[in-house]
Write a structure and sequence with these properties.
Radius of gyration: 26 Å
CATH superfamily of the largest domain: Homocysteine-binding-like domain
Number of domains: 3
Helix content: 40-55%
Strand order of the largest sheet: 1-2-3-4-5-6-7-8
Number of helices: 14
Number of strands: 11
Strand content: 5-15%
Largest sheet: 8 strands, parallel, barrel
CATH class of the largest domain: Alpha Beta
Structural class: alpha/beta
Distance between the termini: 94 Å
Order of helices and strands: HEHEHEHEHHHHHEHEHEHEHEHEE
CATH architecture of the largest domain: Alpha-Beta Barrel
């Protein structure tokens, strides 16, 4: 009996300890695997889905849900964007897995008056209320249209004017033509181009071009105007003219990082515009190649995401397009998924340099819509380089080398004076001390 008591004396506490340890482990595993809220990285990090079916969308969500907090339904002109039940099924699934959503519902512009590209027929404020009721603050807003600044810079305006020149004359003279609000400013630009060609001079300013882009191309856009009127956050991606995209009505811009363009310069342009105009910005990692594998290596994507994060990007997204044969997830391979997961883990567990505070600004001339991607880039898509472009290019290169992602590039605009921001150093494009 005494020996049995001794066994019980030691065995029962040991069993209790084992049971307690197993219970604690079971609770921990359950919590960490399914119920533990993800760490807040102080940014929205995710992927842009560009597939064709709800099944593809759900598969991608399952792949990334543990190391992202944002899902962009970036279907554009895809039929999914016109199917309300598909859109809501995908977003329901994303939100139920802890992700916020941005929804691309195609476009609704003046060139497609006879074609409804959005699925809704009800007013946008009703749609906003419906989705807010369904998803709360996980519904962030609408991704509308795409690359308005890039289209302006790279449009074939010479061909456009050669075709429409005579018609613009008819419109201006009210000869058997219906006036359209786009026409007057374009007609004035058309006349300006003829004047420049005949006189061999360069434009003295670009105020008319800026007015056309901001007022005629963006502010009268029925889709963008409807989003603004309903108080729905309007998102798009671009690779130039960010300052003017914001002026035209966009709330958030994603700078496109890819195509071997300068990451620091693109960030400087969008960050400066956002800071002075009190808007938000992000970065979307786009193609490096125009054929498979499309995306850059995982290490390079990681570096681009981290640079954006350190510079203060509120949104960081990988553009996962197109679907590559044999890949059920899109263009992203294991290399890019691993990089995305590594980035998430790092920004939720480590401290990084904060480059988001106002350090230095380069101030460009008023309404100087130069693309800045290369020495021969266009000005507003209408003009070749002028006497300012070389000096601006040199100043930009020197300041980027000095400040990197800490630099902001802004415009001389009395509505948004540079003095509103406490920059430590301000440089004007024609400064002699750069």
């Amino acid at each position: 009996m005494s020996s049995l008591k001794r066994v019980r004396k030691y065995l029962i506490p040991t069993l209790l300890i084992v049971i307690l340890a197993v219970s604690i482990l079971a609770i921990y595993v359950s919590y960490s695997s399914g119920n533990q809220p993800k760490a807040n990285p102080n940014a929205y990090v995710g992927v842009a889905f560009c597939g064709n079916t709800t099944a593809e969308a759900k598969l991608l969500i399952d792949k990334v849900k543990s190391y992202t907090n944002l899902f962009v339904l970036d279907s554009g002109r895809n039929p999914i964007s016109r199917n309300q039940s598909s859109v809501e099924e995908i977003c329901d699934y994303a939100v139920s897995n802890g992700l916020s959503v941005i929804i691309n519902l195609g476009i609704n512009d003046v060139l497609e008056i006879n074609e409804t590209t959005w699925f809704w027929q009800q007013p946008l404020n009703s749609t906003k209320q419906r989705w807010t009721d369904m998803w709360g603050d996980k519904f962030l807003g609408i991704y509308y249209n795409d690359e308005p600044g890039g289209i302006q810079l790279d449009g074939n305006w010479s061909k456009w004017f050669s075709y429409w020149g005579q018609r613009l004359n008819q419109i201006n003279n009210n000869v058997n033509s219906t006036y359209h609000p786009l026409s007057d400013d374009l007609y004035q630009i058309y006349l300006k181009m003829w004047d420049v060609m005949n006189n061999g001079t360069k434009p003295q300013d670009y105020n008319l071009e800026a007015k056309f882009f901001v007022q005629d191309a963006l502010k009268i856009d029925p889709g963008l105007g409807a989003l603004n009127a309903a108080g729905i956050t309007a998102y798009t991606s671009d690779y130039g003219l960010y300052w003017f995209d914001y002026l035209g009505g966009y709330n958030v811009l994603f700078t496109e990082l890819g195509w071997n363009c300068s990451v620091a310069e693109q960030i400087a342009l969008v960050k400066g515009a956002a800071r002075l105009q009190d808007k938000e910005w992000g970065a979307i990692i786009t193609w490096k190649y125009d054929s498979a594998p499309y995306l850059d290596s995982g290490n390079q994507i990681y570096n681009q995401m981290l640079t954006s994060y350190e510079a203060g990007a509120k949104y960081i997204v990988v553009f996962n397009y197109p679907y590559v044969e044999g890949n059920n997830y899109g263009a992203m391979s294991d290399d890019q998924f691993i990089a995305l997961q590594r980035f998430w883990n790092d920004i939720t567990q480590k401290k990084f340099t904060d480059l988001s505070t106002p350090q230095a600004a380069l101030v460009l001339p008023k309404n100087f819509g130069w693309g800045m991607r290369n020495p021969n880039d266009t000005i507003w898509g209408f003009w070749t380089t002028d006497d300012k472009t070389q000096q601006i290019a040199i100043a930009t290169s020197k300041l980027l080398a000095q400040y990197g992602a800490s630099l902001d590039i802004v415009y001389d605009d009395s509505t948004y004076p540079i003095t509103n921001v406490g920059y430590k150093n301000v440089y004007y494009w024609n400064s002699t001390d750069i």
